[in-house]
Amino acid sequence: MSIKIKKVVFAVIGAVIISAGVSGISFANADHTWGPYHWARTSNPFTLKLGDNVSGVWDTHLALTSADWSLSSVLDTVIVTGNNVRKPKACKPKTGRGEVCNAKYGFNGWLGVASIWISGEHITQGTVKLNDTYFNTSTYNTSPWRNLVMCQEVGHIFGLDHQDEMFSNPNLGTCMDYTSDPESNQHPNTHDYEMLETIYAHLDTTTTLNKTVRNTPMPDVNLDNPKDWGVEIRRSKDGRVSLFERDLGNGKKIFTHVFWVEGGHSEK
């Protein structure tokens, strides 16, 4: 969409407390980026393709997430045929876009993961995996839970981090806030859109939104096993949130955000 109209006005978040360190961010984070990482592009707003590899039960949630994030003044998302339609569980990345997948990944501890391939400071591709093994249980088989996790994992592949990582804190009215009651945390809020404007305030001389990104070929790596995610560089105090880094060399890395179910995190 070329003209952005933000239809929902959210309450302004007051006190902002930042708690940094190895244990992760505990409270609302005024600058919720997870690094200098962004999609390279030569103009705003830019359009990021989201590959649809999800089953029918997820279609409305993907459509809602795409529409929500497209309210940003700097980016649009468009849903296209996925690169993994025949084998969605594999969720292989495709250069220049994000791939969104769901499958029964097993009782492995995680509800959703977002992986982002980096070259220098530029995002080149991303994947979102949603674990139906848990979403088919009575706890998570609800629209609010599906909307929260879908919205949050897609938000990660733009370069956004969480606003809050404490499940017991009051909801902030954003999907980038962890919670045990997702009813009011199903969509982005004003602060998320403002952070996107900050992340994408400058323009690049090239783009990573193409099928072929010059000088940035990414190695074909397997991320099916948590041991393949690399080193855990951050974990929330309650162990429900993790960020992993896998260094591929030559300025290329993969970052993986993990949303653990309660009691799901284990030492790697």
Question: How is this structure best described in words?
Answer:
By secondary structure, this protein is of the alpha/beta class. It contains four helices and nine strands, in the order ββαββββαααβββ. Strands 1, 2, 3, 4, 5, 6, 7, 8 and 9 form a nine-stranded mixed beta sheet that branches. β5 and β6 form a beta hairpin. α1 packs across α3. The longest helix has 14 residues. The chain starts with 37 loop residues before the first strand and ends in an 8-residue tail after the last strand. The N terminus is likely disordered.
CATH topology: Collagenase (Catalytic Domain)
CATH architecture: 3-Layer(aba) Sandwich
Distance separating the two termini: 43 Å
DSSP, total strands: 9
Can you identify the CATH class? Alpha Beta
